[in-house]
TrEMBL record, chains A, B:
Residue span(s) of domain Aminoacyl-transfer RNA synthetases class-II family profile: 141-451
Cell compartment(s), UniProt: Cytoplasm
InterPro entries cross-referenced by the UniProt entry: Aa-tRNA-synt_II, aa-tRNA-synth_II, aa-tRNA-synth_II/BPL/LPL, Asn-tRNA-ligase, Asp/Asn-tRNA-synth_IIb, NA-bd_OB-fold, NA-bd_OB_tRNA
One BP term from GO: asparaginyl-tRNA aminoacylation
PANTHER family given in the database record: ASPARAGINE--TRNA LIGASE, MITOCHONDRIAL-RELATED (PTHR22594:SF34), ASPARTYL/LYSYL-TRNA SYNTHETASE (PTHR22594)
Name under which the protein is recorded: Asparagine--tRNA ligase
Stored Pfam families: tRNA-synt_2, tRNA_anti-codon
């Protein structure tokens, strides 16, 4: 117990099954969500953030005239309460606290925006420092924290070392989109800049983490990445977190085994450790109210595998009038991915062996010379959740492919050189944390999954 | 088991206590650290990165002429080995593998720099993609990963939610040092820049995480932070990771309890989970070869507390001829901190209640009007390891202090406003991850604790 002298509401939830707890003296602190009374008895819904659920306080103004003051305390006020614990088996809330003393800690000025009435998610994006006090964001940021812990746990338990790849990088030649420049000057004179050359913010830790896989076998990055793309969509943010595991002595099959294991572990852990939050999303956010059962089905399923070529064949045979073309060589769009996933595989599916021209230079060329050992993991309702690949470990193949794509070798000599010094097969993948949260919660906009979202033109605080 | 068809060397270390394991067929893969032979029998020290220690392979060229090829394989080559497991109780290494087949996976070009001879740490900083294959860096990056996991574990177990505060921020007015600008332009026209205003890289997540503490009670950030300071020292980097817990309904005492608990838990966990690595640092890096016993003593001790005023008094009474002044009001230097810690407290000590003028604007003013509720945690051999404070939760006090220090309120209105909406006592602290690693390992330079260190003029890859 870190703090002494009071209980957390999460402690009270543990007390509820203790037969000797009834009548025990408790002292709790938190913020008022609602406060109503009938002139004699009042009810405060108190939340201290220690768990998703709050605690009902009952104050009897007839029995104790001093408690009349409590009826003036409004939504958002912080209070300290001394009282007794009362189990209420069978009731909606399993216990309540009968207040003997209610002490005001901090009131709210009248312009406090988080009143009881519902606000739109759009409005609340402008007040990221206060939207945290709503049920929706409490559930979101709890799931985010539990998910992050689950990711670390799964990978650490499976022998992966956590490597923090750099945010500031001199490698802006990866071609993964537009980048932000990092500078201490205002004139773009990068030779005389802080690092003596152009510096930018990372778009992916993959290239930097590969040397660690080629030393320690199994490693992962988990950190922020950045895209300076001027796209205003519900799934793009300029700053987002990525998990990028990388495995040595591994091929695409091994890679997919880790992806499947990670996703299933995370779903199970979130359903277990964030049960009230997930029930909230199921009941109030998901339109069909089937979120939990859909996730459980994915966690219990065996993921299927289709090659890209097979997938295109399925689209062709479907007879469906798709909006976008799906000829061999085209990138699959979300409508195609969802058809394959929901109608063909009827569950999570890996699409493998994509045409080389729609994938990155570092992916391993297959023997057909046309496709690469890449895979995307598709899930029902969303489409692509993860992308991965076996990396090209053969020096000659890699240099040839870079040449074909006009990617200069010199800035990436260190990366290419890994193929000259004890090269081994290796593979990896990248998961976008926020996309995963969208999938787990059913929330519709990436801006609501990030504490302080950054998008073009938006930098609140 | 993620990968099938072969064992990790860490698996073999688990087999060594299994009485039925002798003679079992094994298949392992890794990189050659050393290879020597007497013309008849050869010995390869193989490392696959699954654990700090490697595995000795024995190949009998007399018994199997095909194994003569293996004697040509050099340091750094990657190989796959089929053989049998042989426990060697009492020997330096608890088992060896008798090779039946040694397959070359990847050779090394002659310019492979990581030959058996010792390289300086300075030299290896220029090849961050290859230095990973040495014992020193293997130990360092393993301890880094285990320490990161321990930090997450301790905080999650104690009810702290993990919050990822933003890297790109519009708040450059915190006064915590020089900042990097983030831009997509080359002309400093920030009004027409990506975010429509000047953007920079965060120097601390504290201000951004406070609203989350004032919603969920206990939270922490753990992410990269940046300083554009032109200082070339052994303890400064331009990019480093910080852990910043923040607690609501908490004062400086509660804050110190978490700091002490976190440090002790991390020391114990690293000593337990990174035992071979810590033995390596104890024996080969620490000058006095007492690293482990010193850390164990800290983990077992009860941290002392002295006020700043008492500490200055101790310095005055010491009779020691310090290099720097230590009058009341001066910042304590490392020599003072180490004297207090090593000679007065004889162990870890918190110094509390510093003069307000040497601490940040957001720290809570004490009743004396001269000191603030801040604390630094000092440890023997290093000095300051963590700094924390209770935050000023009183609106009037905070605004007054900002005015005294000429800090404009407008850009931080959101932060100040938290004091108008259900304000409560709260406190927090910041731990520099790399400084903690320096302390735990005895390594001398922060550049060696970071996968790709960034310092003025240095941006390797």
């Amino acid at each position: 117990m870190i703090q002494s002298g009071y209980q957390l509401i999460s402690d009270l939830y543990k007390m509820k099954d203790d037969s000797g707890a009834a009548g025990k003296a408790v002292n709790i602190r938190g913020w008022i969500r609602t406060n109503r009374d009938n002139g004699h008895i009042g009810f405060i819904e108190l939340n201290d953030g220690s768990c998703f659920s709050g605690c009902q306080l009952v104050y009897d103004m007839d029995a104790n005239g001093e408690l009349k003051e409590a009826s003036k305390y409004l939504t958002g006020y912080s209070i300290e309460v001394s009282g007794t614990f009362k189990p209420t088996p069978g009731a909606k809330q399993p216990f309540e606290v009968l207040a003997q003393e209610v002490l005001l800690l901090g009131s709210c000025d009248p312009d406090f925006p988080m009143q009881k009435k519902r606000h739109t998610l759009e409005f609340m994006r402008e007040i990221p420092h206060l939207r945290t006090r709503t049920n929706t964001f409490s559930a979101l940021f709890r799931v985010r924290s539990i998910l992050c812990a689950a990711i670390h746990d799964y990978l650490q338990q499976n022998g992966f070392l956590y490597i923090t790849t750099p945010i500031i990088t001199g490698n802006d030649a990866e071609g993964a989109g537009e980048v932000f420049t990092v500078t201490t000057r205002n004139d773009a004179d990068y030779e005389n800049d802080f690092f003596g050359k152009h510096a930018c913010m990372t778009v992916s830790g993959q290239l930097h983490v590969e040397p660690f896989a080629l030393s320690y076998g199994r490693v992962y990055t988990f950190g922020p990445t950045f895209r300076a793309e001027n796209s205003n969509t519900t799934t793009h943010a300029s700053e987002f977190w990525m998990i990028e595991p990388e495995l040595a002595f591994a091929d695409l099959q091994d890679d997919m085994a880790v992806m499947e294991g990670l996703i299933k572990y995370c779903i199970k852990t979130v359903l277990e450790k964030a049960a009230p939050e997930m029930q909230f999303f199921n009941d109030l956010i998901d339109k069909e109210h089937t979120l939990i059962s859909r996730l459980q089905a994915v966690a219990d399923s065996s993921f299927k595998v289709l090659t890209y070529t097979e997938a295109v064949e399925c689209l062709r045979e479907s007879g469906v009038d798709f909006k976008y073309p799906y000829d061999w060589g085209c990138d699959l769009k979300t409508e195609h991915e969802r058809y394959i996933c929901e109608q063909v595989a009827k569950g999570p599916v890996f699409i493998t062996d994509y045409p080389k021209d729609i994938k990155a230079f570092y992916m391993r060329m297959n023997d057909d010379g046309k496709t690469v050992a890449a895979c995307d993991m598709l899930v029902p309702g969303v489409g692509e959740l993860i992308g991965g690949s076996q990396r090209e470990e053969r020096y000659d193949h890699l240099v040839k492919r870079m040449s074909e794509l006009d990617i200069p070798v010199e800035p990436l000599k260190w990366y290419v050189d890994l193929r000259r010094f004890g090269t081994v097969k290796h593979a990896g993948f990248g998961v976008g944390l926020e996309r995963f949260i969208l999938y787990l919660t059913g929330i519709g906009n990436i801006r609501d999954t990030i504490p302080y979202p950054r998008t073009p033109g938006n930098l609140t605080f």
